[in-house]
From TrEMBL:
This is ABC transporter ATP-binding protein. InterPro entries: AAA+_ATPase, ABC_transporter-like_ATP-bd, ABC_transporter-like_CS, ABC_transporter_ATP-binding, DrrA1/2-like_C, P-loop_NTPase. It comes from Paenibacillus lacisoli. It comes from the Bacteria. The keyword Cytoplasm does not apply.
């Protein structure tokens, strides 16, 4: 029954020792490999997740993000490797982790002919939330997702974005400490996207750790403090966002000036390339270079039309780390 995948996805409970949380990473993933027939979806995937972080899993379609998320939530078994939650192997205790993990799969898993309220009641009970606590949580998650006023309406009358928000609400009923979301904004309206972003930021502020899988770089830049870059079944890099930008992408200056010839590579400039009617100069000393360029332009009477600093972006990081642009 496909609608059950929320529940099937979450491993059963294990005794997770919260006391060890300070010493252990929340999640430690080591050497995951997975093949579907001859297709190797994952090759030796490893990463760690700190409690309280907002972790972006960035990669193109087919990179292996969903397979990784499904392994973390117990839907798919890896061929090799381990997943530890607070230092404890999830696999060794098949009861586990559902208390800690909320999973929002890529596919919408709701009953179309039931109301939002009835869907939430169903999923809440399946997660073991009951009675007055369940009713309280249903109201809270409907408020959090901005859909309290639509609670009694059937899901089939909802837009794709609203369905997605109810899907997220269902994964929150049991107050998970780790929320895993697999491409939650694909194909939805901007209003729902904003609701989802606000929700994630709010949850994160309240201490919920979030894993957010996406192929949209701007979403990772807007939401995440830690990033894993995934391509062709491998994690190519993992670091805090600022560190990745500093390590794999350099600052640059764009200059467009009438009469200006190609700038020479000089100390402080690592590369020069043509872009449109101007030049892009990669440099670690943007301020200093801007002053030099202004002096040179005024000395030679090159009329400056545009001069700006280009911030390093995840796009540059992705290109450096994988050798390809992030394609849709
Ligand atoms: N059940 C399956 N059977 C066969 N191949 C699969 C299966 N699930 C995934 N794959 C393949 O494994 C690779 C990784 O897929 P996965 O869904 O994990 O990637 P993804 O990064 O989540 O991409 P997408 O956003 O398209 O889901 C792809 O080549 C995909 O076609």
């Amino acid at each position: 029954m496909t609608n059950m995948s929320h529940i099937q996805s979450a491993p059963n409970r294990i005794a997770v020792h919260k006391a060890s949380a300070a010493a252990e990473p929340l999640l430690e993933v080591t050497g995951l490999s997975k093949s579907y027939g001859r297709k190797q979806a994952l090759q030796n995937v490893s990463f760690t997740l700190k409690e309280g972080s907002s972790f972006g899993f960035l990669g193109p379609n087919g990179a292996g993000k969903s397979t990784t998320m499904k392994i973390l939530t117990g839907v798919v078994k890896p061929d090799q490797g381990s997943v530890k939650l607070f230092g404890e192997e999830i696999d060794s205790n098949p009861g586990a982790a559902s208390r800690y993990i909320g999973y929002v799969p890529q596919e919408i898993t709701l009953y179309e002919r039931l109301s939002a309220w009835d869907n939430l009641e169903f999923f809440g009970q399946a997660y073991g939330v009951r009675g007055a606590e369940l009713r309280k949580r249903m109201k809270e998650v409907l408020e959090q997702t901005g859909l309290l006023d639509r609670a009694k309406e059937e899901i089939r009358t909802f837009s794709g974005g609203m369905k997605r928000r109810i899907n997220i609400a269902a994964a929150l009923l049991h107050r998970p400490q780790l929320l895993i979301m697999d491409e939650p904004t694909v194909g939805i309206d901007p209003q729902s996207r904003n609701h989802i972003f606000d929700l994630i930021r709010g949850l994160n502020r309240d201490g919920v750790t979030v894993i957010y899988s996406t192929h949209y770089m701007e979403e990772v830049e807007a939401l995440c403090d830690e990033v894993a870059i995934m391509d062709q079944g491998m994690v190519k890099a993992q670091a805090p966002l600022g560190e990745l930008l500093g390590r794999y992408a350099s600052q640059a200056i764009y200059i467009e000036a009438a009469g200006m010839p190609k700038p020479q590579i000089a100390p402080g400039i690592t590369s020069v390339r043509k872009e449109g009617s101007g030049w892009v100069l990669e440099t670690e000393q943007a301020e200093h270079m801007i002053k030099l360029l202004i002096t040179e332009c005024s000395k030679h009477n090159w009329n400056v039309k545009k001069l700006e600093v280009i911030r390093p972006s995840l796009e540059d990081v992705f290109l450096t780390v994988t050798g390809t642009a992030l394609r849709d």
